[in-house]
Amino acid sequence: MRAETRRWIQADQSHCWHPFTRQAEWGAPGHEPLVLTRGKGAWLWDSEGRRYLDGNSSIWTNIHGHAHPVISAAIRSQLEKAAHVSFLGFTHPGAAELAERLCGFFPKNSLERVFFSDNGSTAVECALKMSLQYRQQTDASERDGFIAFADGYHGDTLGAASLGGVGRFTGKFRDRGYRVTHVRSLDELAELDPKYISGLVIEPLIQGVNEMRAWPHGMLAALRGWCDENAAHLILDEVMTGFGRTGKMFACQHENVIPDFLCLAKGITGGYLPLAATLTTGKIYGAFLGAPENAFYYGHSYTANPLGCAAALASLEVFAREKTLEKLAPKIERLRAGLAALKAAHPIVHDVRQCGFIAGIELRQPDGSRFPPDQRHGEAICHSARAHGLLTRPILDTIVLMPPLSTTHAELDHAFAALDATFSRNPGIDTRPASR
Ligand SMILES: *Cc1c(COP(=O)(O)O)cnc(C)c1O
């Protein structure tokens, strides 16, 4: 190992605290985290010069690949002007243009206002607060609850976490936030008293953190109907699904549904800078006009950061220039075929799930039973895949495969070959505790 690598690891292990990480293991002697130093296209390099395919798009953010010349140039050009200016009391060209472009994806007079923030959690947080404040300003303050789905994930700030249905993440804080009723299906909505509901929140088409599980087709349109009948806001969390991931620019377009709030983050800048957007309708916006106390008193210092807006505009330009979505359709089919081949070849592959260019590969023991959780098989498999030039992260024992949309057919084949080799070496019948 190079001396530099050793120094970085030592500094990290002495001072960094990583997200969703058991720090005792992270800091243990002998744990050598990869130090990622460089990216190009779908590939990342570590500090030892080894190359890996970015199999989960750097935690679901990257769209057009790393170091894309158009996005990098746009950021550089904005950097020459100003890295940041306040959006509180001022505006700037990038934010104005980006808001117009985002609304332009939807029919006129539907989603027509954009509130910028910094990440997926705040995008959801804004929608929740706007929904509640709207109720207070429209004589409906009894509507102070939300509906969310079991096993859903909407972020980690207190309000967003109270929507979350993944017990191992939110158990300790879930009851401290909003009043949320969790349901599993459309049918369970019938048992609720909708008079107290401000909004219903869902990850459309597919729940990401719930091991990549897709909803039945038609679910979204049915939910739109339920919300309309019961005067509830439909809040779509497209933090993962937005920006082409499902094969269309936004997941809601698959069922021609327009929500009352649309939450965007991760892919909005192509995966280059933290930026988020909460889109809403003119009707909701209208309730925040009038009396001064009707204003939405919410914001963050880096709201609508100009570098982020420049990256987001450049990313949309790349979608158009490179015909990203047109080229994605055959890649989605190749992904489907590759997943089917893995399932056919390896008894350890219990199920493969796919929605557009998002895939989950669920591993189980050959008899169909789950691995004991303390074996952490998914983690061990992802660790082994590094040796075959693939980086990704599991959700429990489901291996996530969702590389950048720019990934070529040959690069997809590289990912499949890496998984094939990894599964061949780990057929799943070895019951030793997984070493990490
Ligand atoms: C990642 C994610 C979030 C949270 O976004 P952050 O930027 O990590 O705060 C919220 N909802 C969904 C569906 C996500 O995938």
Would you kindly provide a written description of the structure presented here, covering whatever features stand out?
The two termini are 18 Å apart. Helix content is 35%, strand content 17%. A seven-stranded mixed β-sheet has the order 4-12-11-10-7-5-6, sandwiched between helices. The protein has a four-stranded mixed β-sheet with strand order 1-2-3-15. A four-stranded antiparallel β-sheet has the order 13-14-17-16. The protein folds into two domains: 34-64 and 323-424, Aspartate Aminotransferase, domain 1 (Alpha-Beta Complex); 72-321, Aspartate Aminotransferase, domain 2. The chain contains 14 helices and 17 strands. With 436 residues, it is an alpha/beta fold. Residues 119-121, 124, 153-155, 203, 208, 237, 239-240, 265-266 line the site of pyridoxal-5'-phosphate.
